[in-house]
Predict the 3D structure of the following.
Amino acid sequence: MNRKQQEISKKAYPDFQRRFFPQVLEAHADKDAFCKYNDPLLQLFVSVLFLAGIVGAFLGSFTAKQWGRRPTMMLGGLCFLIGAVLMAPAVHVAMLIIGRVVMGLGVGICVMCGPLFLSELAPYHLRGAFNTQFQLFITIGILVAQCINYGNQNYEWGWRLNLGLAGLPAALLMVGAALVPETPAHLVEVGREEQGRQVLRRIRGAEDVEVELQDIKDAAVAARSTKVNPWRAIFSRKFTPQLVTIVALQVFNQLDGINSIMFYAPQLFDAMGSGRREALMTHVIIGAVNVATTFVAVFTVDSLGRTFWMVEASAHMMACEVIMGVLIALKMDPVTGAIPKDITVGLIVVVCVFIAGHAWGWGPMPWLVCSEVQPMHTRAAGTALATIVNFILTFIIGQCFLSMLCSMRYGVFFFFAGWLAFMGGVPIEEIEYKFRNHWAWGKLMAKHDAAQEAKVVDDIADDLAAPRGTSSCKVDVAKKGKPEM
C-alpha cells in the first residue's frame, strides 16, 4: 500500500469522502498540513446551511408575527426534518447540498424564533437564565452529534445514519412546540387578551398576573399605534441604538473565531498529525466542555450581568488564540503537520479554555441582549435581523476558513485574536446613551423625538376639541375627503 492509500485508509467515513469529495480524498496526501482540506465544494457543503438560514430567519420574522411563535417553531422543525430525509439517502453531492439548504431554512427559523419564544415566556427576574438555555441545548445537540459521529466512524454506512438521525430532534421539536402554549405577548398583540391572561396564569402558577399583563398590554398598544412596517421601523433613526447593538453583537459573535474551531476541529487536529479517532475524540471533548461551561452562563447571567461575561470572554479567548498561533508557528512541521505529543495535549487544553469563553460569553449573551433591547413592534424583525447578520458571517467564515488557513497558516489565529482585542471594549449597555450624546446622531434623535412628541400632543388636542362621537368621522374626512353619510 503506497503512502496515498495509507492516508485514505486512515480517514473517517472514507465512503462519504469517496462519493462526494473525491478530489479532497485523492489530493489529501499530496498537500501540506495547512492546505489538506482547502476545497471550495467542501466549504460550500458546510456553509450553505447558513446561507439558507438567512432566508429562513427572514421568513420566520413574518410567520412569528402573523401566525405566532409556536407555529413558527413547528415550521422550523418541519424544514429540518425534510432536510434530514433528503440527505440520508443521498447518492450525489447535489442531494446533500439541497438537503442542507432545506435544513438551513429550518435552522434559520428556529434560531430566529427560539430566543424570542423563551424571552416572552420567561419571568422578568429569570429571563437571562431562560434565554441562555437556548444556547445550552444547542451545545447539548452538538455534543450528541459529535458522539454519534465518533461512534459510527468505523461503519461504511455510518454517515447515512448520522445524517438521518438529524430528523429525530426535529420531530421532537415539532411535538414539543405543539404541547406548549403560545406566548402571552403574541396573544395580547393580536387581540386575544383573555387567552393571554389564562396562559400567563398557567406559566406563572399564580392567579394575580394583572401587573405583568398590563405591561404586556401597554407594549401591545404602543406596537399597534404605529403603522410603520417593523422592518422599516428598525432602520429608522428612532431605533438606531438597537440596530447598532444587534448588528455589532452578532458580528462579534462570529469574529471571536468559534466556528473556525467547531466546524473544522477534526480537520485541524488531523492536520496536526493526529489520527482519525484522536481527531474525532478531540471534537467530542470540545463538545463536552462546551456544554459544561454553558451552565456557568445559565446560573450567573442574572447576577453578574451580560457585559461582565462578554468582557471576560474577550480577554481570555484572545489569550488562547495568541497561544494557539504561537505554538503552531513554533512547533508544527509545515509539511507533515506533526506536533510533539505534549504540545498537542497543551493545544487541546487551550482550545477547551477558548471554548469555555465562548460558552459563557460571546455564545449566549448576544442572543440574550438582542432579544431584550427590542420593543414589541420590532421584536420579531429585530431578532430576525440578528439571525441574518449572524448567518451571513457564519457563511463567510465557513466558506473561507480553510482557504484562510491554507494562505495565512498559523496567522489565522492572530486574525481572530485581533478582533477579540477590539470586542472587549464595546460598552453594550451604554450604546443608546452614547448615540443620544453624539454630536451628530444626538441632534437627529432629539429632532425625531420632538416630532413624535408633537404628533402625540396634536392628536390628543384634536381628540379633546372634537365633539363627542365625531372622532371616527374626522378620520374618514382625512382619508376620503368627506365623511360617509
Notes: The chain is about 80% helix and 0% strand.
